[in-house]
Design goal:
Number of strands: 2
Strand content: under 5%
Number of helices: 11
Pfam families: BPD_transp_2
Number of domains: 1
Shape: globular
Oligomer: single chain
Helix content: over 70%
Organism: Pseudotabrizicola sediminis
Main location: membrane
Structural class: mainly alpha
Keywords: Amino-acid transport, Cell membrane, Membrane, Transmembrane, Transmembrane helix, Transport
Largest sheet: 2 strands, antiparallel
Distance between the termini: 52 Å
Radius of gyration: 19 Å
InterPro entries: ABC_transp_permease (IPR001851), BCAA_transport_permease (IPR052157)
């Protein structure tokens, strides 16, 4: 029984981190129809911003989190203006973004590898290796803090989207871009800001990843299928669906890792991606596409 509780705790703690990692990807697709394969590489970039803040000046990763978010949001604005804005109205935009973001991921990986080499790194604040013990069950402090911070950020994002005027504009653009524009929404501004927020969330996730996982520039390829499985299972563009899928798959993966070994744990996400595309490609909260 204790092993089941322990595994459940670890799955829930990591689920929060995965939820933040996937929420920015889901937001960007929902608003701009951008299938951002570069999202994991930008998470790694956020992890490096946090790592060097800690390594050079001893700044806590949680304090560096808003810095990493702002830096990556700025990079997001540049990326959008240089790469994605010009073809935003194209009927084949989503298909084009797969290739564009794949190329962007390779460029980001190459730049990070050139600057920092492919040495594995990890930010090591004191709480990263501490734990709270309740009997024989332990709660890793690093994962606990990361999970709580992730949920706070996602909650703030949900409140922003629901209650702010600009959040309503984002939701309107997500539901119907053309109708939103007819009603006076500046969809170009919404697109830029949504992309910046999405990439900023990648930076925030990177700050948490920096002390929860070890990382190096090519690490992002391991996370592409993981994040895509979360977003597809939850429903492309649904942040709530992504959060629920993150906890569900993280818990399942934790139990698979205990029962069958850590190698099979990652396979949980690949198998989930395959099955959901086969059985229900619109995901749990996505809308079924209409046939022409």
């Amino acid at each position: 029984m204790e092993q089941i509780i322990q595994t459940l705790i670890l799955g829930i703690a990591l689920g929060g981190v995965f939820a933040l990692m996937g929420s920015g990807l889901s937001l960007v697709f929902g608003v701009m129809r951008i299938v951002n394969l570069a999202h994991p590489s930008l998470i790694i970039a956020g992890a490096y911003v946090t790592y060097w803040g800690f390594r050079l000046w001893g700044i806590d990763p949680l304090v560096m989190l808003p810095v990493a978010a702002v830096v990556l949001a700025g990079i997001g604005v540049l990326l959008y203006k240089l790469v994605f804005e010009r073809e935003a109205r194209s009927a084949k935009y989503s298909e084009m973004t797969v290739l564009l973001t794949f190329a962007t991921a390779m460029i980001v990986e190459g730049a990070l590898g050139f600057m920092f080499t492919n040495t594995q790194r990890v930010t090591s604040p004191g709480y990263a290796t501490d734990a709270i013990f309740i009997g024989n069950v332990f709660i890793p402090m690093g994962q606990l803090y990361a999970g709580i911070v992730s949920l706070v950020i996602i909650g703030a994002l949900a409140a922003f989207l629901k209650y702010s005027r600009f959040g309503n504009a984002i939701r309107a653009t997500t539901q119907n871009r053309d109708a939103a524009e007819l009603l006076g929404v500046n969809v170009n501004l919404v697109g830029i800001m949504s992309f910046a927020i999405g990439i900023g969330l990648a930076g925030a996730a990177g700050a948490l990843v920096s002390f929860v996982f070890s990382f190096f520039p090519a690490k992002h390829w391991e996370w592409v299928a993981v994040l895509m499985s979360l977003v597809v299972l939850g429903g492309m563009g649904s942040i709530l669906g992504t959060v629920l899928a993150s906890f569900l798959l993280s818990i399942i993966a934790a139990f698979v890792g205990v029962w069958f070994g850590s190698t099979w744990s990652t396979m949980t996400f690949f198998l989930a991606l395959f099955l959901i595309l086969l059985v229900r490609p619109q995901g749990l909260f996505g809308e079924k596409p209409e046939l022409a």
